[in-house]
Structure formats: structure tokens, C-alpha cells
Write a structure and sequence with these properties.
By secondary structure, the chain is α+β, with helices and mostly antiparallel strands. 36% of the residues lie in helices and 8% in strands.
Length: 213
């Protein structure tokens, strides 16, 4: 085929003014366009067959595992060892101090019936108080002085007054007072109350006087 370069009747010339006429014929241009289309299709095939699968495979790869966080291990503080509590020292508890029993200003006399050495209830009550005092005050000693009235022989009165003092002594010993702390003496009718024999005072003279020292 010979291309003369003559314009085809009825064809419109779309060239720009001043541009030179193309040397390719319409058939050549058609062939060239087909080649370009084929090259483009080949690129698409290569893209679909090679590039796209690689791209998808790269995207499908699992993300790299994150490394475990670094945990700083802080050593536990050393246990605090407390000193042992002090051992309590037993303290001696002083014995309670018992109050000192005061001595009475006077101890009542022990009175007796006439010609008798038997202790009456009042005499025993007085001796009970005396016993309590002597147990509370172990340093005390007691002197029992026996007396009679002025009736009767002197020898009988001396013996009777001693019996009265010893009756009181025996009662105290039976109730817990040491015998060594008790003395008994006899005066008969030689020491009447007030130093004068008075008939109205005979009952008070039949007595045992109590002295503490």
C-alpha cells in the first residue's frame, strides 16, 4: 500500500494551524493504537498476576508481636527485726502493813462472886478483847493481879485471889495466847480500891486487875 499523503475527501483536518501534516496513515495509526491497547492489557495482566498478589500477601502478613513490657523488679525491703521486748523483772510486793492496834487507856477489871473463882460472862467478854489485842500485838505482856474483899481469913483470901488470877490466865492460854506472856499474882485483901476498906466497895474488890506492858 502506498500512502500518497493526499487528503481524503470529506475528512476534516483537525491539525493546529502551522502544524505539519502527520506522515502516518490511518491504518498505521490503527495498528499503533491496537498495540498500545495490547501493551496496556498486558500490564494489567502482569499487575493482576504478580504485583497484586504480592501486595496482598504483604498486607496479610501478621503484625510482628509486640515485645513484652519490661517490668522492673524492685527487691522487697529487708524485714525489720524488732528487738525482743524486755523481760519484766518481777518486783517483790511488800506485805501489807497491818495497822497497829492502839492500847486501850484502861482494861476493865474482872469481877467475881463472893468466895468464887469462876469467870462470869462479862469477865469472859473482857478476856476476849484482851486476847485479840495480844494476838495483834505479840510484843505485849500481861500481868493479872488477883484481889478479894476484906471478909475471911487472910490465908484464904490470898489463895482465892491467886485462883482468880490463874482462872483468867488459863482462859487466855486456851484461846491462843502464849503462857510465857502472862503473869499471875495474888494480893488477897491487902489492896482495896482507893486504899480504904469500904463495905459498899466489897463487890468491886473481888476482882482481877489487868496490866499491859
Amino acid at each position: 500500500m502506498v500512502f500518497t499523503g493526499a487528503p481524503v475527501a470529506g475528512a476534516t483536518d483537525h491539525r493546529l494551524p502551522g502544524a505539519s501534516r502527520s506522515r502516518l496513515s490511518p491504518t498505521a495509526r490503527t495498528v499503533l493504537l491496537v498495540l498500545l491497547l495490547l501493551i496496556g492489557m498486558a500490564d494489567l495482566v502482569v499487575l493482576d498476576a504478580v504485583v497484586l498478589p504480592r501486595t496482598l500477601a504483604r498486607k496479610a502478613r501478621p503484625a510482628p508481636a509486640l515485645s513484652a513490657p519490661i517490668v522492673a523488679v524492685v527487691p522487697a525491703p529487708a524485714p525489720v527485726v524488732l528487738p525482743p521486748p524486755p523481760v519484766p523483772v518481777p518486783q517483790e510486793i511488800p506485805a501489807p502493813v497491818e495497822p497497829v492496834v492502839a492500847l486501850p487507856e484502861a482494861v476493865p477489871d474482872l469481877l467475881f462472886w463472893r468466895n468464887a473463882a469462876v469467870l462470869t460472862k462479862n469477865a469472859q467478854s473482857t478476856l476476849e478483847n484482851l486476847r485479840t489485842l495480844m494476838i495483834a500485838r505479840p510484843e505485849l505482856r500481861v500481868l493479872l493481879n488477883g484481889h478479894t474483899d476484906d471478909l475471911g481469913p487472910e490465908r484464904v483470901n490470898s489463895l482465892l485471889s491467886l485462883q482468880r488470877a490463874r482462872a483468867a490466865q488459863r482462859w487466855l492460854v486456851r484461846h491462843g495466847v502464849d503462857r510465857a506472856r502472862i503473869e499471875a499474882e495474888s494480893f488477897g485483901a491487902s489492896k482495896p480500891l482507893g486504899g480504904v476498906i469500904v463495905p459498899s466497895a466489897r463487890r468491886q474488890n473481888r476482882r482481877v486487875e489487868i496490866e499491859l506492858h
